[in-house]
Design a protein that fits this description.
2 domains; alpha+beta; 4-stranded antiparallel beta sheet; Rossmann fold
Length: 268
């Protein structure tokens, strides 16, 4: 990757203290004749590729002593600053001229196929590179490579759409489950509230019933004691004693029943 970010020209041709920044993508430099378009292009070319000394010297300003400038580029290794004195030789000169622009001194004839010319230049200088074989194969295949690529992309899109539809259905299920969860949580809250109310009421009823039973037991015990006293007083009367005894038995049974109920309530 090589991206030109900025050009700073201290002195080169007609430029002095000139600066221009480039954005990502296509950048268009335009202007009238003698505005300096070719000068700017050659400045970039000389710093990025091989240049002869006489080519550079003809751009040395004659009206001041400042001569030089910098290129700011981004590469795989990060940002790099190139100045006119060192030059980077990052791009092959012939390839740069053919793929970017032709200088006014270019004296060769354009091949019928620019793509083929680029391949020949690569083969001449980098014949051992795997990249050249890949490019050659791509050119031989012609449009079919794009058809295959398009088909592959369309298949990938179809697969993604299918997955998207599955996830849409899954999303509906999740939303439905969330609604059910909200309803159940609301119902649980209502049941918990109802349970708490009934529990408190049960505790209150239980407490009240225990008090009633205790009070009733006390009354019955007093009544039994009263009957027992009466029985002693009337022990000479057989009939009265029998009646008192029967009443005492009934009261004892009632006491036993209430005691049993009290014990059960205390266990709860």
């Amino acid at each position: 990757m090589l991206r030109l970010r900025k050009v700073e020209i201290e002195g080169f041709g007609k430029f002095k203290g000139f600066e221009i920044e480039f954005r990502e993508g296509l950048n268009l430099v335009y202007g009238p004749n003698n505005a300096g378009k070719t000068t700017l292009a050659n400045f970039i070319r000389y710093l990025l590729s091989e240049a002869k000394a006489e080519e550079i010297e003809r751009y040395r300003p004659w009206y001041h002593d400042v001569f030089g400038g910098n290129l700011f580029v981004e590469t795989y290794e990060g940002e790099k600053v190139i100045n006119l004195s060192e030059k980077a030789h990052l791009i092959d000169r012939d390839l740069f001229d053919l793929s970017s622009f032709l200088s006014e001194t270019y004296d060769g004839k354009m091949e019928k196929s620019v793509d083929r010319k680029i391949i020949l230049l690569f083969r001449e200088k980098y014949s051992n590179k795997e990249l050249i074989r890949n490019i050659e194969n791509a050119l031989k295949r012609g449009p079919s490579i794009f058809v295959d690529r398009k088909k592959k992309v369309m298949d990938e899109i179809a697969e993604i759409e299918e997955k998207l539809n599955i996830w849409k259905e899954r999303k509906k299920e999740i939303l439905s489950l969330r609604r059910e969860k909200i309803i159940l949580e609301k119902r649980l809250k209502e049941l918990s509230k109802d349970y708490e109310y009934k529990r408190k009421k049960f505790e209150e009823d239980k407490k009240r019933r225990i008090e009633e039973i205790k009070k009733k037991l006390e009354e019955l015990e007093k009544e039994i004691q009263y009957l027992e006293d009466e029985r002693r007083k009337r022990s000479h009367l057989r009939k009265a004693s029998v009646e008192n005894l029967k009443e005492a038995i009934i009261l004892s049974e009632e006491i036993s029943k209430l005691s049993k109920e009290l014990n059960e309530l205390l266990k709860v």
